[in-house]
Amino acid sequence: MVLWSVVFLAFLMTQILTSSRTAITLAANLRAGAQARAADDGAIDEAIFHALAAGGGAWPADSAPHVVSIGGIGVTVRIESLAGLVNPNLASAPLLTGLLIAAGEKAGDATRLAGNVADWRSPPPSPQAGAALLDAYRAAGMRYGPPGAPFADLAQLADVLGFTPALLARLAPYMSVYQPGDPDPAVAPPVVRQAIAFASTVGPMGAGYESVVSVRITACASAPAAAGVCRTAIVRLLRLGTAAPYQVELVEDGQ
């Protein structure tokens, strides 16, 4: 009985020690993750300062990496302009159609899908039109209809009639709900430039290009215990020296 008791106590102590080591490791990882996220947020603030700065201290929105140290933690931060992207809440039907064609859709399908996007984001012109849209969605097996409100994020495009996950994956790199106007051809990717060229042949694109620029800032900490912890911010840059030179639209974990 004594020997069995000693064995049992030894086993119990081993389990307690193992559990304690696991808890300590978990706490250390949580602490390192919190420090890395705080460093990422600090790097984002520094990137905003340099994005608004003039002269040699300015960082252009060209996705080039900048390495900074925040609280002793190295962070790689990049600034990417959203000025060349298409905002599905503002783009005209011709621009949306052009983007869909440039992404590989046939002209007839692209026109139909662009109309579905416009129906989703805009209030119906009459109760009868709203009922007809709801019937079309229900006929496609959906239990909802267009809300007549802007897209909160690109993921909502997956709910639009006719949009598939594959189509959304092709379009997502060229769209942003945070772009304040039409895309700037000078910084637009080739697919968006094709869409602009198409839209210009059939009429005005829509909202008009804005001088206010929205950027995506990505910060990734390189701390050994929390490598790869990233934060992304969408920031609207206004003008240094004003009461509110910038506006943070979104901050979230991940790239």
Strand numbers in spatial order across the main sheet: 1-2-3-4-5
Helical run tally: 6
The share of residues in extended strands comes to 15-25%
Helix proportion: 40-55%
N-C termini distance: 60 Å
What is the H-and-E element order? HEEHHHHHEEE
Poorly predicted ranges = none
Tell me, briefly, the overall form: flat
Q: What is the β-strand count?
A: 5
Radius of gyration: 25 Å
Structural class: alpha+beta
Question: How would a textbook summarize the main sheet?
Answer: 5 strands, antiparallel
Mean pLDDT score: 85
Characteristics:
255 residues, alpha+beta, 5-stranded antiparallel β-sheet, 15% strand
Structure description:
The protein has 255 residues and is of the alpha+beta class. Among the domains are: 35-83 and 211-253, no CATH class; 93-174, no CATH class. It has helices spanning 2-52, 93-102, 107-121, 127-139, 165-171, 190-202; strands at 66-70, 73-81, 213-221, 230-237, 246-253. It has a five-stranded antiparallel beta sheet, covered by helices on one side. A hairpin with an 8-residue loop joins strand 3 and strand 4. Helix 2 packs across helix 3 (107-121) and helix 2 (93-102) crosses helix 6 (190-202). It is flat and about 90 Å long.
Give a brief rundown of this model.
The protein is an alpha+beta fold. The protein has helices at 2-52, 93-102, 107-121, 127-139, 165-171, 190-202; strands at residues 66-70, 73-81, 213-221, 230-237, 246-253. It has a five-stranded antiparallel beta sheet with strand order 1-2-3-4-5, covered by helices on one side.
